[in-house]
Amino acid sequence: MDADVRSAPLIPPAPKVHPRQLGGSFVGELRIALEMSRNLMGAWCEEDFDNLFTPYVFMGQPGMVVSDPAAARRILSSPNYVRPVKAARSVRPIAGDGLLLSEGETWRRQRKSLAPVFTPMAVEGLLPHFVAAGASLAEALSGHARADLSEAFHHATLDAVLSALFSRRADAQGDQLAYMVRRYMEGPAHFNLMDFVSRGADDLTFLDVERRRQGAAWFQAVEHLIAQRQAHPHAEARDLLDRLLAARDEDGAPLSNQEIRDQCGTMLVAGFETTSRLLFWATYLLALDPATQDRLRAEVLAAPAAAVRTLDDLQAWPLMRSVLFETLRLYPTAPLLAREAIGPDTVMGHAVVPGQIITISPWLIHRHRKLWDAPTAFVPDRFIDQPHPWGIEAFLPFGAGPRVCIGASFALAEAQIVLASLLERFEIGLVSDRPVIPIASITLGPDHAPAFTLTPVS
């Protein structure tokens, strides 16, 4: 893709890239498993950023890495490929059988039932929750010269999602829910070595005791909220729970309480930490690139976040959208997608057998040397004339095909408003020049939480 690249573009830090493949033997495969248990991005080698197709055998199971955008999109769109069962091990205890993890007819029915919940009109109705969360974040940081914005964004996005989902704040009113979600996502949700060596969801489950315990407590808390809302319904839809209770399947039947519970868990898993990480990486990049930060601040000061009432109001921030898109390119929230073939196929001239694992990495595709100009550079202007960049074949921040993230517009609206609320109030810098390296597990987070400087905007 062509882009106007400045003479000295910002090249943000990235994980070490190995000079050659680590596999090929039991010891090599064990090294890969250990690397990926620490960081899912830890096993890539230099050739991976040039090759569009790489076959492999891992722990006796054949697979292939596919970085050709057309082939990747076809695989993600084909019913011949499903999410590997073991890939859901870490989040199923809190997401259940919701849209994120369901397959086949169950997924199709759920997707159709949930479509009205994420229409533009429905997302527009949630904008006040995002504006309130952004204002609360800015106010909480007021008077502080330094801040841990990784933690602050976690709280702000959890506040926004709990408010949009249950009309509860991540404070005294919703502190139990907030604590439960944070505790799970920061602990049991992370992949471990057993997740890689297991072949199915039920292998080695004796090691998942804490996942199951915390998941059961979360389900019980959400079921209690559902029962409360059913006993005392709102006169009109205020939040996503109201819309889930009003949703109907294709036969006109309401969703079961278990389905509603699982969708609530799915929305939190998919909408809390992912948006928090997007905000963190965008802010980190802007701290490293003060010129772009100044341009973006001028844009949001001309159209303040508090004035946002409709999705059309967000069109006043074209650079904001470009910054977030470029952030998603460099730091895709889901950096690794895996699919398992359930039938024979041919991919790029290579035979695929049932049971074969296909690895599609937005991290690789977004930084691939054959697909992007200056692939490792932060160049938000490459998206400035792309208000809807989903047509860019090599851009897969929310997946592709029928399973593309249903909440993409929700996440982008939330991120724009929260980031604008921060930039209106503060110039943001970094206390230290220590590089922040992305570490991938459930999402792509930092290897440490850097301290940011906050200078009030005069």
UniProtKB/TrEMBL annotation:
Its EC number is 1.14.15.3. It is an enzyme of class 1 (oxidoreductase). Its cofactor is heme. Gene3D superfamilies: Cytochrome P450. It comes from the Bacteria. Heme binds at C405. The keyword Oxidoreductase applies. One of its GO terms (molecular function) is oxidoreductase activity, acting on paired donors, with incorporation or reduction of molecular oxygen. Belongs to the cytochrome P450 family. This is Cytochrome P450 family protein. It comes from Caulobacter vibrioides (strain NA1000 / CB15N) (Caulobacter crescentus). The lineage of its organism: Bacteria, Pseudomonadati, Pseudomonadota, Alphaproteobacteria, Caulobacterales.
